[in-house]
Amino acid sequence: MLWLIIKVAVFIALVGAVTLGASFLLELEGGVRVVMAGVEINLTPIKAVIALSVLILAIWLLMRLAGMLVAVLRFINGDETALSRYFDRNRQEEGYRALGEGMLALASGEDLSVEAICTVAGNVQVETCTRNALGLLALTGHTHVPVYSGCARPLQAEPVFAGHIHGESGLGSVVFPEKRPGARPGPAAGFLVKRLSDASQPPVTLVITGPSTNLATALEIAPKITAGIERIVLMGGARREGGNITPSAEFNIHADPHAAQAVLHSGIPATLIGLDATLQLRCTPDRMAALRAIGNPASGAAAEMISHVNAVYGEIYGTAGAALHDPCTIAWLLAPGLFSARPARVEVETGSPLTRGHTAIDLRPASGTPPNADWVDGLDADAVFSLLLERIARL
Fold it and tell me: Which of 25, 101, 137, 253 has the fewest Cβ atoms nearer than 10 Å?
């Protein structure tokens, strides 16, 4: 509550300043004449612009100082990470999301093989996502896994990012090794076309934890690559929970609804894990303590990032612990018995600006429309988190 009280006080002060400024008498007659408390000041147009610019700069500095004051007071009150969170304000959840499913996959080499990582513009720009992926591989010692930079914008819709939640870089206070591999040449969609068209290779399972733009683009280029895909496991959509980027849409689907619709209509078997399930898996204080107790670099990095995001979720949503959305995809691959799912017909809204990315999930068996996905609507949170801890301990 302290941060809210201080910000409200700053807002009231700014409103007062604007109200006072509105009481000035401004007359444009070859210049600007400002009358305040009986004192007359004559400004040329250039000086007036400079004065306005200084005022705007002063307001911006005041807001920055207010944010710093909030961080200092939190630190004094016992929040040891408050200052680091403030100075890393623009580094938040995208890196943490990558750490979540990335670590779980990389630590499960006995059960699955990570052939490649394809990045895509999602919560942050694609260049940032690629940097995060390369840093994760360096951190975990899996630099042999190739990374391909993917699509920088949606198929048709205007790009949308979540900087107000996830920040600009997504790295939090975690420091990745300076020495890291580089991305492979060529776009992600080109890699997918080449790999999925190779009949000498076994079909793959594609895990999508962002917008579906890369796969949709590859399908446009080479529709027959569906033969090279055994299943898609996609984090996205919502039914009971509504949405998170808008009241009726989950972010990954909202970011590129046309791509999601194309993928769901491709005929490829799909498992869709949306907010109805992922919001059941939260990073509570007890779970955070268990994660930190592992004591290896991977668990430390994950704990740092999740702590950062927990604070953001607490401020915005008032919840005790952020949801672990993306790791649910890999957890489902490793232990599908920990999840509950039902066949569903899933259609994506692509035309309405108001409900862009809404997922209409039809669970009625007699609806007359054949299912195109398995909709995961529940999970055993304690068991899934225990699986996550067990695998991160291997890194």
Answer: 25
Residue with tokens 């059960």: 111
Per the CB < 8 A criterion, the answer to whether 157 and 258 are in contact is yes
Residue 44's contacts (CB-CB under 8 Å, 6 or more residues apart) are 31, 32
Six token digits for residue 271: 């498992």
- Structure token pair of residue 193: 């076309």
- What helix, strand, coil percent values describe the chain, rounded to 5? 45, 15, 35
Decide if pLDDT at 355 tops 90. Answer: yes
Residue type, 36: M
Distance CA 314, CA 283 (A): 11
What's the mean pLDDT in 125-131?
A: 91
The H or E element containing residue 213 is helix 213-221
**What is the gyration radius of the CA atoms in the chain, in angstroms?**
25
- Cα atoms in the Cβ-side hemisphere of radius 13 Å centred on 249: 23
Q: Per residue in 240-256, pLDDT tens?
A: 999 999 999 999 999 99
Q: What are phi and psi of 246, to 5 degrees?
A: -135, 170
Question: 23: Cβ–Cβ under 8 A, 6 or more apart, which residues?
Answer: 36
In sequence order, the β-bridge partners of residue 152 are none
Domains along the chain?
A: 2-85 (no CATH), 88-392 (3.90.245.10)
Backbone angles phi, psi at 165, to 5 degrees: -110, -50
Strand partners, 234: 208, 272
Residues 6 or more apart whose Cβ sits within 8 Å of residue 137: 106, 117, 143, 145, 147, 180, 181
166 in catalytic set: no
Catalytic residue selected from 254, 258, 308, 325:
325
pTM for this predicted structure: 0.74
Q: 62: Cβ–Cβ under 8 A, 6 or more apart, which residues?
A: 10, 13, 14
Residues in the chain: 395
Residue 114, token pair as written in the block: 């990570």
Helix (H, G, I), strand (E, B) or coil at 34: strand
d(CA 168, CA 147): 20
User: For 207, phi and psi rounded to 5 degrees?
Assistant: -105, 120
